[in-house]
Write a structure and sequence with these properties.
By secondary structure, this protein is of the alpha+beta class. The protein has one domain: Gcn5-related N-acetyltransferase (GNAT) (Aminopeptidase). Helices cover 27% and strands 29% of the residues. It is built from 5 helices and 8 strands. The strands form 2 sheets. The protein has a 5-stranded mixed β-sheet, with helices on both faces. A hairpin with a 5-residue loop joins strand 3 and strand 4. Helix 1 packs antiparallel against helix 2. The radius of gyration is 15 Å and the shape is globular.
Length: 177
């Protein structure tokens, strides 16, 4: 069952969340990437969920989890530099504003990035979310993961860009300590 808007809560990820976030990450990539990425890219991308480095991917930045008290429905990580390290939503929860809310909450938790701006390497899936929250595409990069090439979009948001509080961006969510 899809949770109602008022039932979504945000909290900081802990080591106890890593296994569930591995599954959410892989499910998100495997369900949402077909049609935008080829099978080799999807396998390489989703394979990161089983890598030993995945725990650090979650725990090194400040990672916020969206949940409905029964399941984790998304997560977003942000580093003190302002770099958005991750942004994933469970495929059954897409198109409900959860990714946008997570991104906005992460920006709120890092109001003064040490790099002087916020940045991300966006996929074809996440680029529209970043654009809705005031990020502009400033470049394209070619990268490789597990021997497979990917194109990513370099996104940047400067201080003073329109706030994330515009209509449609804020999900009614409670941020737990």
């Amino acid at each position: 069952m899809i949770p109602a808007r008022s039932e979504i809560h945000l909290r900081k990820a802990t080591a106890d969340d890593v296994a569930a976030l591995r599954a959410l990450y892989a499910a998100s990539v495997e369900a949402l990437a077909p049609g935008l990425y080829n099978p080799d890219q999807i396998a390489a991308w989703s394979g990161h969920a089983s890598a030993p480095a995945f725990a650090a991917f979650i725990l090194d930045p400040l990672t916020l989890i969206a949940h409905d008290h029964q399941q984790r429905v998304g997560f977003c990580g942000i580093e003190p530099t302002g770099h958005i390290a991750s942004l994933y939503v469970h495929p059954e929860q897409g198109r409900r504003g959860i990714a946008t809310t997570l991104l906005c909450a992460a920006l709120d938790r890092c109001p003064m990035p040490s790099d002087g701006h916020w940045s991300a390497e966006a996929s074809l899936l996440s680029r529209p979310v970043f654009a809705r929250c005031g990020f502009a595409q400033v470049g394209v990069e070619q990268t490789e993961q597990n021997g497979v090439r990917f194109e990513r979009f370099l996104m940047r948001r400067d201080p003073g860009a329109h706030p994330c509080a515009f209509s449609g961006c804020r999900y009614e969510a409670t941020l737990e300590p």
